[in-house]
Amino acid sequence: MRKDEHIKRAWDAASRAWVDFVRTGKDYTRDRLNNPAAFDMIGSVEGLIVLDLACGEGYNTRILARRGARVTGVDFSERLIEYARAEEEKERLGIQYYVRDAIDVTGLTDSYFDLVTCFMALQDVAEYRKAISEVSRVLKPRCRFVFSIPHPCFETIVLNGKKANVSTRYFEQAEYTIQWSMERLSIPFSTIAFHRTLTDYFDALYRNSLKVSRLVEPRLTEKACQQYPCLEGILHRPQAVIIEAKKTIF
Ligand SMILES: C[S@@+](CC[C@H](N)C(=O)[O-])C[C@H]1O[C@@H](n2cnc3c(N)ncnc32)[C@H](O)[C@@H]1O
Question: 223 CA to middle of ligand 1, Å?
């Protein structure tokens, strides 16, 4: 059995609840905070060949395709890919979906993609260094990897059943459970993620010839906060960080 089998199982088990969360406007931080900043950084994708790594049920994959990219989406959860494919049946955007582990995107050609995206998912990938090495393999030279992760300096994690703020144990890598139990969810669920330092991510990028070119900490507006008072806790601190890195080997 693979050592991160429990992570995959958690995502398969959460798939229906996740789809409900994402597709019914309940993922406020995605819609109000992270996507505007991430898509601003990504810019025009018209005509680009894009890989959306750990694409889940494909919400952002479809945005990329609607903006004119030729998109491939991969995720290791069979259930989430089924949901993504079912949506593609309803709205044909030309997206190819594959069940693949981010650490081994077998079948995807070297130096093929103009852009690789990975939205709020690298923190869930157990072997993130291998995943970053795959990103570098499939990206064309001089092309970009844009990814977002929960801001490692401000995560609140559940360790041994207790809520802990990582700022007290920032340097310790840790596997933790995320309990998705906000009131607005019709079905609560839990998934597994990893706390790592910014240095960990930057080092993996550096070792795979991915040179960081931009970093953005999306900031909530007062207006969005008034609309969604439950987001007040992140008005004065970043919830996520979005990073752009360019492949420097030719
Ligand atoms: C928080 S969700 C984000 C999904 C999607 N990127 C989005 O923005 O909706 C994290 C995703 O990472 C996927 N994932 C975690 N580990 C993975 C791995 N090793 N390989 C591929 N996908 C993985 C999960 O199945 C899940 O779909």
Answer: 30
pTM score, whole prediction = 0.95
Mutate which of 75, 80, 125, 180 for ligand 1? The one with the most ligand atoms within 8 Å of its CB, which is 75
Residue % of the chain over a pLDDT of 70: 95
Pocket perturbation via mutation, ligand 1, pick of 3, 6, 26, 77 by most ligand atoms within 8 A of CB: 77
Cα 44 to middle of ligand 1, angstroms: 24
Query: What would the pLDDT profile of 10-24 be if each residue is shown by its tens digit?
Result: 999 999 999 999 999
Task: State the average pLDDT over residues 139-167.
Answer: 83
In this prediction, residue 75 carries a pLDDT of: 98
Q: What is the DSSP string of the chain?
A: --TTHHHHHHHHHHHHHHHHHHHTT--HIIIIIIHHHHHHHH---TT-EEEEET-TTSHHHHHHHHTT-EEEEEES-HHHHHHHHHHHHHS----EEEE-BTTB-TTPPTT-EEEEEE-S-GGG-TTHHHHHHHHHHHEEEEEEEEEEEE-TTT-EEEETTEEEEGGGGTTS-EEEEEEE--TT-SS-EEEEEEE--HHHHHHHHHHTTEEEEEEE-----HHHHHH-GGGGGGSSS-SEEEEEEEE---
Which atom in ligand 1 lies closest to the alpha carbon of residue 54? Answer: 22
Distance 56 CA to ligand 1 centre (A): 5
